[in-house]
Design goal:
59% helix; globular
């Protein structure tokens, strides 16, 4: 819950049921994904209950991030978003690496983007970033909740649940001590960036999906101070051409010569 600074009413998140379902499996409510797809994902996770696995989550997220969607983000959205645009080439290369099957390289490239763009966005929101990026990201999410209320941005209840879910992900998964990371996918900044995790620990598509969701979330935050749609990117001839290139990369992936 969040109490606005002006007034006595309390605004509660309206997607709390989704936040409670996604958080334990190491995910959070993403921007730009249709509500119907998110509802279906919640139902699947609920149905499986304690039996839900990271493989199940990977299958769900694979359907959320097909080539044509990521191509539209790379071609038409990341270049327009404040702070994110400074890393558009890195993000584009990471997406290429993902479709070619190089998910360790993709994630290794994207984690610094989360940190750099997150800090730039924090400064733009009047937050002085300290040395702990996890704390910076949590402070940024908290500020965006207040910003949504005070400036009447978007559906406030939905935004509050989204920001709280992102905070859960940062606190309990992405920036938790790598020794305390409890899920099999190992999508953890410290373990990956400091080399605590080796080849066998991570490198699956799910690692990429979780980190690109974080990038998209920061893009969503960037749109608070930019003229950008909360609904996501438009599909253009340029993004269609890029999506076709991603298909070619997927076809080439099968011919990769793997290191023994």
């Amino acid at each position: 819950m969040l109490k606005p600074e002006t007034g006595n009413s309390v605004v509660t998140g309206t997607l709390e049921h989704w936040r409670r379902i996604f958080s334990p499996v190491g995910w959070f409510i993403p921007p730009y994904i249709p509500m119907g797809l998110l509802s279906e994902a919640c139902q699947l996770i609920q149905q499986k209950g304690a039996m839900v696995t990271q493989d199940d989550l990977e299958n769900i997220l694979a359907s959320f991030y097909p080539g044509h969607f990521l191509a539209a983000m790379v071609a038409n959205f990341y270049p327009r978003a404040p702070a994110i645009t400074e890393y558009k080439a890195i993000i584009g290369e990471a997406v290429e690496a993902h479709f070619f099957g190089l998910n360790r390289v993709a994630v290794g490239g994207l984690i610094p983007v989360v940190e750099g763009a997150g800090r730039q966005l924090a400064i733009s929101h009047g937050i002085t970033p300290g040395s702990d990026t996890g704390k910076v990201l949590k402070a940024l999410a908290s500020h965006c909740k207040q910003d949504s209320i005070q400036r009447n941005i978007g559906h406030q209840g939905e935004i509050i649940s989204m920001m709280d879910g992102f905070t859960d992900f940062v606190r309990n998964h992405l920036y938790i001590d790598s020794k305390r990371y409890s899920l099999s996918d190992k999508t953890n900044r410290h373990g990956i960036a400091h080399g605590h995790y080796t080849d066998s620990d991570y490198g699956r598509p799910l690692n990429f999906y979780k980190i690109i969701t974080a990038i998209n979330f920061l893009t969503f935050i960037a749109s608070f101070h930019a003229h950008m749609s909360f609904l996501g990117p438009s599909y253009t001839d340029g993004s269609a051409k890029l999506a076709g290139y991603y298909v070619e990369l997927e076809n080439l992936r099968a011919a990769r010569v793997l290191v023994p």
